[in-house]
Specification:
Blueprint lengths: L12 E6 L4 E5 L5 E2 L8 H8 L9 H15 L8 E4 L7 H7 L4 E4 L14 E7 L8 H11 E10 L6 H5 L11 E2 L2 H11 L2 E6 L2 E5 L8
Parallel strand pairs: 4-5, 4-6, 6-7
Antiparallel strand pairs: 1-2, 2-3, 3-8, 7-10, 9-10
């Protein structure tokens, strides 16, 4: 059975690139580039890669990296806005930065902070830094995150974006075996239109998506 696009569920996708390890297909509807399901890592292999990450709130370089998402998002928040850092990883740092700015935070990570009760609340904003490219089912996961946002809430994401086939072929981002979904600006525009969101691109690897102020839409 043909795999559907993991974001929009379309069956219309075409070969985009192939290297020695994996195939990459691009959806004709939402333009997501994705790795076929049978070429993804298993849970133990995936976690083994993440365990090698050494991120920490004490790392000023890592804070500077995260500031590309933090700075434009914090500027759009009301004082005391409550947030969730989704996919916080083994060394949560973005949540610490928001807490230092006066925003109470919850964190969730399927491997390192798997308390699913935090996914039963509503938030003024949700962050997902370097998360989207790891999602096996981005359509389901992003729908879940949208459901956590209060009216007018923000979803802030950081992930490097696909530009062209030629650039993709030599892109370091595809060398990480845990990276299985690759978004382009067109993909985010599709997602924003699908969910009736306001979309902004404050940096080349950052996107901010805002829900309507109207309660209960979609």
């Amino acid at each position: 059975m043909m795999q559907t696009c993991p974001l929009c569920a379309s069956v219309e996708h075409l070969p985009f690139h192939r290297d020695a390890r994996r195939d990459y297909r691009r959806c004709r509807q939402c333009e997501l580039v994705f790795v076929p399901a049978h070429q993804r890592l298993g849970p133990a292999e995936e976690k083994a890669v993440y365990d090698r990450h050494q991120n920490s709130p004490d790392d000023t370089g890592y804070r500077r990296f995260l500031s590309r998402l933090f700075d434009p998002l914090v500027a759009r928040l009301e004082p005391g806005a409550r947030g969730l850092d989704f996919g916080a990883g083994p060394g949560p740092t973005l949540s610490v930065m928001f807490e230092e700015a006066g925003h109470p935070m919850a964190i969730f990570d399927p491997f390192y902070a798997p308390d699913a009760s935090v996914l039963e609340r509503h938030y003024d904003f949700v962050t997902a830094s370097e998360v989207a490219e790891h999602l096996f089912a981005p359509g389901q996961e992003l729908e879940r995150l949208m459901g956590l946002l209060a009216p007018g809430g923000w979803l802030g994401m950081m992930t490097k974006r696909v530009s062209s086939v030629e650039a993709f072929a030599g892109w370091h981002y595809i060398l990480d075996p845990t990276h299985v979904c690759f978004f382009s600006e067109a993909t985010f525009h599709w997602f924003a239109e699908h969910w009736q969101l306001r979309v902004e691109f404050p940096a080349e690897d950052v996107v901010l998506l805002q829900r309507s102020e109207t309660p209960g839409f979609r």
